[in-house]
């Protein structure tokens, strides 16, 4: 048996830990499936898809290809949002908690983590891919959070798409881990990413800003004054986004802060609305 096959075998047969597992199934119960696991690993299928589930901030989420697999960096984005919300007593202290829009919900990892940590919050989660819409719905049901989330099929790059979100405005927060890979970098991604994950969830266009600028353009129409946008981006984007915002004073958006990820790369942006 190949080494990876043995490693996967061990992973599948042990009790579930922080990053996914098998809900304590006995080792012997997995024996008939060993050839399948070996075959899947040989094709470089991501382990999240092989297991069919994965943990994100302590929540066990269903995972199915080709929906984007949440990365550890995105847990840091959620943590930053929670820190900022905790500093806003006028939001968390009210009967109705923050109203949050997530653009590009994928598996629902971000939205459901926020709902889990902010029991008075409500989320509108949008994605243009039906596979993502379906998986977010499944995970909301799985975690019994379906009553506080609206899941909508929507492409924010289309003209006028923001009008579909007006019934929920004004919003407190917009959060997104959008497609931000520079198009020329797509071919450099690992084979398992290129083969199994939806390229639409990765490719951000020529400069990686296609979806980011769409979010920033629709945000002022939906946010409260002093409402915030939190984004995960490529390390090259903070400077590019800052320059782009300066060229669009009509949006009344300002880059408030840049936060580095655990590897020291500028990875997260906080943009705030101030004005009409």
Keywords:
276 residues; alpha/beta; seven-stranded mixed beta sheet; two-stranded antiparallel sheet; 10 helices; 34% helix; disordered N terminus
What's this entry about, in short?
The protein has 276 residues and is α/β, with parallel strands linked by helices.
Biggest sheet: strands, sense, closure? 7 strands, mixed
Structural class: alpha/beta
Order of helices and strands: HHHEEHHEHEHEEHHEHEE
Low-confidence stretches: 1-35
Strand content: 15-25%
Q: Report the average pLDDT across residues.
A: 86
Give the termini distance in whole angstroms. 64 Å
Shape: globular
Kindly report the spatial arrangement of strands forming the biggest sheet: 5-4-3-6-7-9-8
Rg, alpha carbons:
19 Å
Count of helical stretches: 10
* Number of extended strands: 9
User: Roughly what percent helix?
Assistant: 25-40%
Describe this structure in words.
The chain is α/β, with parallel strands linked by helices and 276 residues long. It has ten helices and nine strands. The protein has helices spanning 3-13, 34-42, 47-51, 72-86, 89-92, 109-117, 130-142, 191-196, 210-222, 237-246; strands at residues 53-56, 59-62, 99-103, 122-127, 149-153, 171-176, 223-232, 253-260, 266-273. The strands form two sheets. The chain has a seven-stranded mixed beta sheet, sandwiched between helices. Helix 1 (3-13) crosses helix 2 (34-42) and helix 4 (72-86) runs parallel beside helix 6 (109-117). The longest helix is centred in the first third of the chain and has 15 residues, at 72-86. It is globular, with a radius of gyration of 19 Å. The termini are far apart.
């Amino acid at each position: 048996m190949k080494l990876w096959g043995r490693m996967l075998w061990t992973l599948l047969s042990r009790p579930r830990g922080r990053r996914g597992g098998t809900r304590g199934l006995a080792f012997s119960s997995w024996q008939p499936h060993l050839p399948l696991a070996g075959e899947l690993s040989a094709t470089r299928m991501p382990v999240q898809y092989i297991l069919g589930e994965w943990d994100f901030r302590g929540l066990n989420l269903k995972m199915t290809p080709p929906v984007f697999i949440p990365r550890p960096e995105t847990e840091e984005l959620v943590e930053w949002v929670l820190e900022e919300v905790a500093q806003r007593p006028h939001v968390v202290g009210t009967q109705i908690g923050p109203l949050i829009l997530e653009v590009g919900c994928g598996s629902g990892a971000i939205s459901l983590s926020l709902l889990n940590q902010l029991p008075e919050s409500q989320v509108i989660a949008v994605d243009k891919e039906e596979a993502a819409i379906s998986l977010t719905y499944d995970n909301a049901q799985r975690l019994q959070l379906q009553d506080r989330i609206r899941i909508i099929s929507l492409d924010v790059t289309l003209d006028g798409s923001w009008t579909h979100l007006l019934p929920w405005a004004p919003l407190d927060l917009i959060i997104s881990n959008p497609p931000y890979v520079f198009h020329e970098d797509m071919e450099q991604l690992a084979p398992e990413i290129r083969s199994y994950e939806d390229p639409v969830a990765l490719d951000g266009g020529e400069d990686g800003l296609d979806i980011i600028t769409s979010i920033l353009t629709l945000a002022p129409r939906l946010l409260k004054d002093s409402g915030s946008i939190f984004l995960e981006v490529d390390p090259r984007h903070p400077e590019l986004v800052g320059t782009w915002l300066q060229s669009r004073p009509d949006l009344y958006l300002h880059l408030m802060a840049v936060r580095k990820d655990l590897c020291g790369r500028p990875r997260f942006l906080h943009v705030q609305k101030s004005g009409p």
